[in-house]
TrEMBL record:
Residues 183-200 have a biased composition (Low complexity). This is thioredoxin-dependent peroxiredoxin. The lineage of its organism: Eukaryota, Fungi, Dikarya, Basidiomycota, Agaricomycotina. It comes from Grifola frondosa. It comes from the Eukaryota. GO terms for biological process: cell redox homeostasis; cellular response to oxidative stress.
């Protein structure tokens, strides 16, 4: 039987944040799950026109999951980039509603935390077990753009601190893309401006023909 150290070592070897996820570049699946209050929360990707950080985590109340959830909470409150881009954060685990409520209330989480008891969301997003099966759910974060497309995902069960950094990187990249797209039409308009001389040449030609007619 493997020791805990050997298990963690094997997890680190297999864990690869750069692995291509089947949903990358595809429309994100819509979800309807109960939130911590027991109310049905429906997530329709792209409907609000804002980017979304959708993160799956193993267990509410555990050390790493609490740290991760609170890092997202603090980033929403403190990071100007998160505020400026109007990022929506959604957390999901297989815990029942009552446990989600306890978790949300105790940690004062300011975003929806959903209960995926039947594994519907995990199946839709191709999220498997973590730590070689020792964790019921992998720690996976999906970055979904304002059009509802999955741009990238990070699968890092042990490294709970990497997920907010991953989202921050993608928000920076998204802002750069939008800035470049906004500048493109302006450059096109500038290039089209030197059309006036053609009109002046035509006018000069008309004057020349008029002068020739008078002389004749």
């Amino acid at each position: 039987m493997c020791s805990s150290a050997e298990t963690i070592g094997a997890e680190l070897k297999l864990q690869n944040p750069m692995t291509h996820h089947p949903l990358t570049g595809q429309p994100a699946p819509a979800l309807s799950l109960p939130d911590a209050a027991g109310e049905t929360f429906t997530f329709t990707p792209g409907a609000k026109g804002v980017p979304v950080a959708l993160f799956f985590y193993p267990k509410s109340g555990s050390f790493g999951c609490t740290k991760e959830a609170c890092q997202f909470r603090d980033a929403l409150a403190e990071k100007e980039l998160f505020k400026r881009t109007k990022l929506e954060v959604i957390g999901i685990s297989g815990d029942p509603v009552d446990k989600q409520k306890t978790f949300v209330d105790k940690q004062k989480l300011t975003y929806p935390v959903l209960s995926d008891v039947n594994g519907e969301a995990r199946k839709a997003y191709h999220v498997g077990k973590g730590l070689l099966g020792f964790a019921e759910t992998s720690r996976v974060t999906f970055f979904i753009d304002s059009k509802g497309v999955v741009r990238d995902s990070l699968d890092a069960t042990l490294n709970y601190g990497a997920h907010v950094k991953f989202v921050t990187k993608w928000l920076d990249k998204l802002e750069a893309e939008e800035k470049k797209a906004a500048e493109a039409p302006a450059e096109g308009a500038t290039a089209a401006e030197p059309a006036a001389p053609t009109g002046e040449t035509q006018e000069e030609g008309e004057l020349g023909r008029a002068a020739q007619a008078v002389q004749a």
